[in-house]
Amino acid sequence: MPGSSELLLGEFLRTLDDRFRLTLPTELLDPLLGDGSRLVIAKERTGCLSLWSAATWQPRMDAALDVIRSKLEAGLLDQRLGQMQDLGRLLSTRQRTIPLAGRGRLVIPDGFRSLLGVEPGGEVVVVGAAVCVELWQPAAWDACIAVEMPGFRQRIDELTS
Predict the structure, then answer these.
(1) What DSSP string describes 61-89?
(2) What is the spatial distance between Cα 55 and Cα 38, in angstroms, rounded to a whole number?
(3) Whole-prediction pTM value?
(4) What is the dihedral angle through the alpha carbons of 78, 79, 84, 85, rounded to the nearest 10 degrees?
(5) Which residues, in sequence order, are CB contacts of 4 under 8 Å at separation 6+?
(6) What is the strand order of the sheet 95-98 is part of?
(7) Fewer CB in 10 Å around end: N or C, the chain?
(8) Domains and CATH numbers, the chain
(9) 64 half-sphere exposure, CB direction, 13 A CA radius
């Protein structure tokens, strides 16, 4: 998670330039990076990508892969090779470490552009999702909010009680 307990919050509208570059708002970028300088971009769902500090992402990914490796070595996944193959495909394509250029600008990588679904010159909704930053195609964001917002009160009550 960014910093110690700082939540990444806020919603910003940005334009993707003709080279698929996007400038992140400093309100989200500074706490996201913390002391690091590397970002991981991850495929979340159609119309949505997420950005994580590599310092946050990598230890969690390494821990999950360590568990899977030990289960493989112990033979606990021998009957689930198809699921392992599916997981391997997703792991191979799901995330990538990306450089951040000056002024908080990043390039959406080739393999991630079609999932986001925004053409050059199009708008991207940049959302602080508490523990990461999400990049949304506007119609996908609107659809997500329409589904999720009615459960807001219940979710906050569950997390705060």
Answers:
(1) HHHHHHHHHHHHHTTTTGGGHHHHHHHHH
(2) 8
(3) 0.85
(4) 110
(5) none
(6) 8-15, 123-130, 133-136, 48-53, 39-45, 95-98
(7) C
(8) 8-160 (3.40.1550.20)
(9) 8
Residue whose entry in the numeric block shows the structure tokens 């329409």: 146
Residue 151: CB atoms within 10 Å = 10
Q: Which long-range contacts (CB under 8 A, 24 or more apart) does 148-156 make?
A: none
Q: What is the pLDDT of residues 82-112, one digit of tens each?
A: 888 887 877 777 899 998 887 789 999 999 9
Please report, for residues 15, 53, 71, 72, 146, the alpha-carbon distance to residue 120 in angstroms, rounded to integers and kept in the order given. 8, 25, 44, 43, 26
Question: Cα–Cα distances in Å, from 3 out to 35, 93, 97, 102?
Answer: 8, 27, 19, 21
Cα 11 to chain centroid, rounded: 15
pLDDT for 55: 86
Strand runs labelled E in 19-156? 21-23, 39-45, 48-53, 95-98, 105-107, 123-130, 133-136
